[in-house]
Design a protein that fits this description.
The protein is an all-beta fold. Helix content is 0%, strand content 53%. Strands 2, 4, 5, 6, 9, 10 and 11 form a seven-stranded mixed beta sheet that branches. The mean pLDDT is 94.
Length: 127
């Protein structure tokens, strides 16, 4: 089992920034994939960004069109934390953000099932 805990959400004005953190614990491995999803009221859940890494050092990232140029996903030095830096936020980014994980490396992090999920953190962007 892998446990995921998100943090960093909050209220921010349009144009502002937030950095979300996803801390993984439990049966973590040297390979894996973590994705950041979001779900706004009345909307379907969408994958915003994902990062996949292998034990040999290969890495693959994915960004939804809505996130390109504004969001950056990265792994922390401790390797068990993944960050989502969100800049130039707008009210359409308001949602509950979830991190999700799997324990293998993939070239297509947008197309895999995610087995482990965090509880979510609320991001609210005011106009």
């Amino acid at each position: 089992q892998v446990q995921l805990v998100e943090s960093g959400g909050g209220l921010v004005q349009a144009g502002g920034s937030l950095r979300l953190s996803c801390a993984a614990s439990g049966r973590t491995s040297s390979t894996g994939t973590i994705g950041w999803f979001r779900q706004a009221p009345g909307k379907e859940r969408e994958l915003v960004a994902a990062i996949s890494w292998s034990a040999s050092g290969s890495s693959k990232t994915y960004y939804a069109d809505s996130a390109k140029g504004r969001f950056t996903i990265s792994r922390g030095n401790a390797k068990n934390t993944v960050y989502l830096q969100m800049n130039s936020l707008n009210p359409e980014d308001t949602a509950v953000y979830y991190c999700a994980a799997n324990t293998y490396y993939t070239y297509i992090p947008a197309r895999i099932p995610y087995d482990y999920w965090g509880q979510g953190t609320q991001v609210t962007v005011s106009s």
